[in-house]
Amino acid sequence: MQYIWQHRLWLQQDMRTVDGRVVQVVDVGQLNVDAGPDFFNAKIKIDGEMWVGNVEIHVRASDWYRHHHDSDKAYDSVILHVVEKDDMPVKRSNGEIIPQLRMPCSPDFHKRYNHLVGSSGSELPCSAEITEMPSIYVADWLSTLAHERLYRKVEHIKELLERYSGDWEEVCYVIMARCMGFGVNSDAFEQLAMSLPLRFMGKHSDSLLSIEAVLFGQSGLLDEIPVDDYVKSLKTEYDFLAHKFSLRRNENIRWKMARMRPTNFPHRRIALLAEMIYGGFRMMSKMIAASTEKEAQELFDIKLSGYWARHYTFGNEAPHELNALSRSSINIILINVYAPLVYAYGMIRGEEYLCDRAVSILQSLPSENNVIIDLFRRAGIDSKDAFSSQALIQLRREYCEKHKCLYCRIGHRMLSTKMRRIE
């Protein structure tokens, strides 16, 4: 009802109060998102007389008393009470009767709204109407959503910066570790990184064995019976360092490996993270310095040597050398690590060219391919690059799945256009 009032989606212009006085809405007022009346500073003509004040909206008129507005002086400024069901008159705290209006709302509006928000999680209830949307309208909304997703990631980065006293490399280390989980094991990787601060890892950055031992030891993956000399050396090194520095493992770390391709096992991802730390972790400064897509991709085109050149996990050796990361995996890192961190750095430091660079990288990368992108493609919205696919993920996660169709420009256009057609 607030939505209908705010966007003037009522059915007819000839509106009257419940006692028959003509109502003309000059200004619906400003939506209040805090305590108090629903709309501030509305301008309403009642039988030709201009009233300026607040508007309160309820489903039932009796909700006025149920919410104790009759004894709250903050509601004495209400000039119009808008309701769906007029079950009783309402009064201010001094006993004055407040003009009351039944919202002239179409049953079809409720039907369409319920169709949108009542869908199951796997559906896209607006898919039939999306193709009717002007392409420029959809493109503008996707651009807004892509930036909205970047802003949300910036807020998370700000939280980490506060936690780590403004240390950008430490924040980059945690975000990089999380990305190594590639969704399935992201939480586990983040917990692992947080159990081993970068300043501690830096003290051992001259020894790859020590870095690997600490990471694998804290991960819990060394709890199994050693299968070869390399694993034995890791376990010996970890036991020594854990005793020396009183390391405590996070017992809540849980790794998922069922029905997973060997290339996605956490073992190789941990080895890759160790390789990034070896010699000193300076990934944040390297990302700031990388000004092109090619330079950014080269940062993560890392070769694994020694044991991990031919192993997916502990034990059996592969018949040939293995790539550390595929091109598609590197692109995922650019999307989820490089772009948000460079964008956040530029925004916080006031260096706008870095924000532009982050967006440009996303626009140059190929679109992600997942169930969300496929869902929108079937509905007629194609994703041409990573900037677009990030927008569609934001739309699905923050609007579709949360049934916030009234806040989605596509949902709003569907509902408002239909109402105007009815009118």
Plain-language structure description:
The chain contains 18 helices and 7 strands. Strand 3 (30-31) and strand 4 (39-46) form a beta hairpin. Helices cover 49% and strands 10% of the residues. Strands 1, 2, 3, 4, 5, 6 and 7 form a 7-stranded mixed β-sheet that branches. The mean pLDDT is 91. It is of the alpha/beta class and 423 residues long. Helix 9 (208-219) crosses helix 11 (266-277). The longest helix is centred in the middle third of the chain and has 29 residues, at 135-163.
**Major β-sheet annotation:** 7 strands, mixed
**Spatial gap, N to C terminus:** 17 Å
Strand content: 5-15%
Number of DSSP helices?
Answer: 18
Any idea what the shape is?
A: elongated
Structural class by helix and strand composition: alpha/beta
Give the assembly state of these chains: single chain
How big is the Rg?
A: 29 Å
Summed over residues and divided by their number, the pLDDT gives a mean of 91
Quickly describe the structure.
By secondary structure, the protein is α/β, with parallel strands linked by helices. It has helices at 2-6, 63-66, 107-117, 127-130, 135-163, 168-180, 186-195, 198-202, 208-219, 229-245, 266-277, 283-289, 293-299, 327-349, 352-364, 371-378, 386-400, 409-422; strands at residues 15-16, 22-27, 30-31, 39-46, 49-60, 78-85, 100-102.
